[in-house]
Amino acid sequence: MRSVPVRARVYILCVALAGVACAAPAPGTRPSWPAVAFLVVLYAGCEQLTRCRLVGRRIPRGFGTFFPVLLAGVFLLPPSAAALVAVPGALLGRVDRHPRWVRRIWRASQLALAAWASARVFVALGGPAATSGPDFPYVLGPAGAAVLAFSAVLTVLDGGVLVTAERIPVRTAWRGLFARSLAPVTVHGLAGLMMAVLWTSPYGPTSALLVLLPMGVSCWAFAQYHRERAAHQATIRALVQAVDLKDKYTRGHSERVGRASVLIARELGMDAERVEVLRFAGILHDVGKLGVPTRLLRKDGPLTPEERRIIELHPEYGHEMVRGIGFLGEARAAILHHHERIDGSGYPYGLTGPQIPECARVVAVADAFDAMTSTRSYRRARPVEVAVAELNRCAGAQFDPEMVGALARALDRHGWHPEVTADVPDQGVPVPCPALPAPAAARPAAR
């Protein structure tokens, strides 16, 4: 508990007490305890699947999180009994991070409150009668409202944890949480409704288990997707760490360029898949430096023309390194062309204007922005306002004005909080912005 802030402990305790209160049977209600026990054991069993091994490998975490079972309880049981379904499974489920018991109590309380609120909405709208009666299609309305309530309670409680435990600002803690949770909860809600309808049919509770088979397969496939995604992330992380070890002056630069590229992509309204590709492009834009001699990357004085030509090969080196990594998509073009300029004076191919891929134009602006706002051993960081003004001055010649404008708007909205990553203390020697040509005697080595 020492790692949990005091206000987070108080918040979790309040949620836990509310969960206990919701699980207390209301006067006059007589739940079917065999049904409660069956659903409790079923959900707990689904949670315990995450502890098992399948063909020598641990089953992914997502395989055991069966909201259909919880929502079937919402549609079949009184609110207090529905709140009980998740508790044993959540308390006994696998938790990978400390403090484990705090996280288990939090999860059990959160799910109990969500199930209770969802069941209350379902009962208030007459859902139980429509589930087993001749007016079955009308149950979709109460069920939909119950799913919305379930997702809304999860969202509210999750945002509270972000504020109290993670110290996320209140104005941003809940942003996007509801939208991200609604789609999967809706799908699970439909499966839970199918379980409830089959449960009350002449075929009985056993038939309701048939719904879990396709849901289990889909959860397993989704978990495989996330495992593959984690492998992609590990590949990228290894490449970036190799670059950072070789070029100490730009340590952390790749991650920040990825972050700035995401800001631009989102401001331009790109879909989530392209935003992710732009993040990969920003992170890997300098991976070709692995093919450049270390002595040139770490040279403190001005580069000779021959040395500069060698360093300017790094986009082509990078493209060759990643050309076989299929999941990068158009990020490979950004790696190759992020040093092209709108006026055609860039490298490696001297492309102009729209000839330069859009993703490369995004990364070029993000790269220059971070280069100007980062503190390195040979010069101090420029303020964000000065860097944006410099980008605007170069827009139309070196940078795409649309990308510059998108970054400026995103910075106004979200701000920028870079980390100082230089290994050597700042010497306080200002140099020309690396985005612009500088006299040979004053120009730092191209990083």
UniProtKB/TrEMBL annotation:
InterPro entries per UniProt: Cyclic_di-GMP/3'3'-cGAMP_PDE, HD/PDEase_dom, HD_domain, HD_GYP_dom, HDIG_dom
Pfam family for this entry, one: HD_5
CDD domains to which the protein is assigned, alphabetical: HDc (cd00077)
Principal EC category: hydrolase
Keywords per UniProt: Hydrolase, Membrane, Signal, Transmembrane, Transmembrane helix
Signal peptide: 1-23
Start and end residues of each HD domain: 250-372
Residue ranges crossing the lipid bilayer per the database entry: 66-91, 111-131, 143-165, 177-199, 205-223
Gene3D superfamilies cross-referenced by the UniProt entry: Hypothetical protein af1432
UniProt keyword Kinase present: no
Domain HD-GYP: residue ranges: 228-423
EC number(s) reported in the record: 3.1.4.-
GO molecular function: hydrolase activity
The protein's name in its UniProt record: HD-GYP domain-containing protein
Organism whose genome encodes this protein: Streptomyces atriruber
